[in-house]
User: What shape does this take?
Amino acid sequence: MSHQDSLIASDIVAYLQAQENKSFLRFITCGSVDDGKSTLIGRLLYDCKLIYEDQLAAITEDSKRVGTQGDKIDLALLVDGLAAEREQGITIDVAYRFFSTDKRKFIVADTPGHEQYTRNMATGASTADLAIILIDARHGVQTQTRRHSFIASLLGIRHIVVAVNKMDLVDFSQQRFEEIKQNYLSFVKDFNFESLVFIPLSALNGDNILSPSAHTPWFTGDPLLPYLEKVDVTKAPEKTSFRLPVQWVNRPNSEFRGFSGTIASGTVKPGDELILIPSGKRSRIERIVTYDGDLPLASEGQAITLTLKDEIDISRGDILCSADNPASQTDQFAAHILWMSDDPLLPGRQYIIKSNNSSTRGVVTDLKYKININSFSHEAGKTLELNEVGVCNLSLSKPIAFDPYKDNRQTGSFILIDRQTNATVAMGMIDFSLRRAGNVVWQALDVDRAARAAAKHQRPAMLWFTGLSGSGKSTIANLVEKRLFDMGRHTYILDGDNVRHGLNKDLGFTDADRVENIRRVAETAKLMVDAGLLVMVSFISPFRNERQMARALMAEGEFIEIYVDTPLEVAEKRDVKGLYKKARAGLIKNFTGIDSAYEAPKNPELVVNTVENTAEESAQMIVNFLQENGYLEG
Assistant: This one.
């Protein structure tokens, strides 16, 4: 929707051209619960006469049923569109609204104030140039005020408006306004905001929204909308080198081959030299193609297709960069992470890491520290819970192209995706590459896996025994090794209890420690398979994600998952070590099957049922499987 303009009736072409050439501002409203974010946006639209008559009639009617302003119109209902939002009087989802004035175009994101929906606020902030932090004049700075300000800073928002709202409820007190201003300034002094403006207002009544309020003669600054119309959020050209993450190789016919995407930063024109990351190949731009015709110049935010003068191999996920300042590459980096899942971050667990248009597997190798949202101090921790922020090291299965987030919000950001559920669990901002990673290369050896296996006359593999405590994993693995040893095969057993006496004696039994336990064992077993051995790995390994991680380390056919299927009640009756009894009594915490989950395999290579079969029969089934599938030939 747009403002009312006389050109609409007299010269529609001139009007459209004027709209096209206006500057553009994306901003968010955020802050604590019930600080008036939705009301503020509703007031902006209402006072600018940007609400259709049927919308106004509907809001007026809804205000009588679910409004919070008595007989008055509840402007918050313009953006609180979900039924649950209207019933509870809160914002849950991010609501986006477009509007324009005669000076500028805007997209505003109304974000939730509740801590539960912090991830939604971060989503809205990720594309914003400016944030309006609302503060209720009665309550002052709250925990969510701090959290949202910190997240805005973390996500690269450099322009802040602190709107001290509901000033009518404190009699428009200048003293109260100054108290809140000083309190806010004290905790954001290290946030590196480029502009920070404080405005006293009443969103409900419209004070200092479009024009100066008679209730605040002591305030000499701009009202909110006039300030938003003039604030300069443009970036210095020297800081924005060209980046185009390739989204699609456009090949409609044999005569045309272009590379499509949205410009992440910088400008480009025909004749410019580009370098492709990761291949490092170079070429020059021949054409900049769009639906409306070729362009002489393209800039950040435009969707374009580039044709190049040279035929070079380019795929989705590659990045075309300025030849004089290309993006870097790394497979290990430090980053700030905002955790967005109810399930905690587990260092060592594999996630899908999506950056720009490419995806790869990776793990958080180290949680260096968490950031206390109240004091902004650094705190030790092994995991991140919902809405917590931490600084982590990550390791990827292959290098990605990147810029530090502080230099480029598009190419410096990523998300983490859970491999089992495909849910987005975190958003991250890359700080820097771990340079030491570039010094570590794989050393080529003359004697390889195939040669070692041939010398042992067998096909190496990792036999991964998983099941509840007391299921019989270790007993069966021991019997399998004995039979293979009698057959002259080269084997080794990695047993859960035995490994915890040495390699993993520093780990406990929390979910985070269990993940690291399996990661270390999987890497160790991989080396043993590389040595040509048949390795029996006997671990509860309760999480599918970590068993999948172990499988991903191996070549096709080298990982054999063996599910030792024993019902909990049977395993508990056996209770050879007395562990279930202690767990039931509360003497052992995080015990699998009692107060910690076990995720049974979905598609294991083998299932052995220790209720229907003896341990000897189960072991023979496994040996038969190895013989039938060629693992004992060589």
